[in-house]
C-alpha cells in the first residue's frame, strides 16, 4: 500500500531517476522549455524549483550545492547569471506545466514544462488584457450611443468631399465646353 507516499519513482531505480531528473533540469534551465510526459514534468517541477530558489543567493556554497544536483557547469552558470535575476522578486512557482494531449505512439499524456518568466506571449497577454466590467442594465442606451458615434460628422465628411470633387470636375468640363463652343461660334474674319 502507498498510504501517504507522494513520491513518484517513475518506474526507475534511484540512480537512473536522479540522472534523468538532473539532465531534464539542465535542459530546462538552458532551453527554458521542454516537452515530456506529465508524470516526468511534475517530478521535474519538484526537483528544479528548490534549485532555482537556491540560485537567488549567489554564494560559492549555493553554487556547489546546485552543481551537485545538476552536474552541468553551463546550466549552473545560466541559472545564477540569467535566471536568478529574472526571478528575484518571485516568491515561488517558477515553472508552469501545460498539458499537450496524448503521444501518438503509446498514448502517454504529454506536457510542456517551462520557466514562467521566459514565456513572452503570456507576459504580453497579461499586459494587454482588459479589465472585465460588471454587467449592468441599459443595453439599449449603449447601442444608441454606438450608433450615434458611427453617424458622427467625422464619418460623413468623406462623402461630401467626394461629391464636391465630382461637382468641381463637372463644372470645369462645362466651362471648357463653353469656351470651345464660343470659339466655334465666332465667325472667322476674312483677310481683305
Describe this entry's structure for a reader.
With 192 residues, this protein is mainly α. The chain has helices at 14-31, 38-54, 60-70, 73-86, 120-128, 139-150, 153-156, 158-185, and strands at 33-37, 95-102, 109-115. It has two domains: 14-122, 50s Ribosomal Protein L17, Chain: A (Alpha-Beta Complex), CATH 3.90.1030.10; 144-180. It contains eight helices and three strands; from the N terminus they run H-E-H-H-H-E-E-H-H-H-H. The radius of gyration is 37 Å and the shape is elongated. The protein is 59% helix and 10% strand.
The CATH architecture name of the largest domain reads Alpha-Beta Complex
Q: Tally of extended strands?
A: 3
Along the chain, the helix and strand elements come as HEHHHEEHHHH
Whole-number tally of structural domains = 2
CATH structural class of the largest domain: Alpha Beta
* Major β-sheet annotation: 3 strands, antiparallel
Shape descriptor: elongated
The neighbouring-strand order within the major sheet is 1-3-2
Average pLDDT taken over every residue: 83
Radius of gyration computed on alpha carbons: 37 Å
Amino acid at each position: 500500500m502507498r498510504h501517504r507516499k507522494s513520491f513518484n519513482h517513475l518506474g526507475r531505480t534511484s540512480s537512473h531517476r536522479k540522472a534523468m531528473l538532473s539532465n531534464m533540469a539542465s535542459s530546462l534551465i538552458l532551453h527554458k522549455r521542454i516537452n515530456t510526459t506529465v508524470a516526468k514534468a511534475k517530478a521535474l517541477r519538484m526537483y528544479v524549483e528548490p534549485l532555482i530558489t537556491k540560485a537567488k543567493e549567489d554564494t560559492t556554497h549555493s553554487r556547489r550545492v546546485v552543481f551537485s544536483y545538476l552536474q552541468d557547469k553551463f546550466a549552473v552558470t545560466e541559472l545564477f547569471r540569467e535566471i536568478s535575476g529574472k526571478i528575484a522578486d518571485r516568491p515561488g512557482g517558477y515553472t508552469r506545466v501545460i498539458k499537450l494531449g496524448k503521444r501518438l505512439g503509446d498514448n502517454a499524456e504529454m506536457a510542456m514544462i517551462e520557466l514562467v518568466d521566459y514565456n513572452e506571449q503570456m507576459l504580453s497577454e497579461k499586459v494587454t488584457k482588459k479589465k472585465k466590467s460588471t454587467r449592468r442594465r441599459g443595453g439599449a442606451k449603449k447601442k444608441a450611443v454606438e450608433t450615434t458615434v458611427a453617424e458622427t460628422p467625422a464619418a460623413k465628411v468623406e462623402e461630401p468631399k467626394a461629391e464636391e470633387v465630382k461637382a468641381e470636375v463637372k463644372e470645369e468640363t462645362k466651362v471648357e465646353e463653353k469656351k470651345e463652343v464660343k470659339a466655334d461660334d465666332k465667325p472667322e474674319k476674312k483677310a481683305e
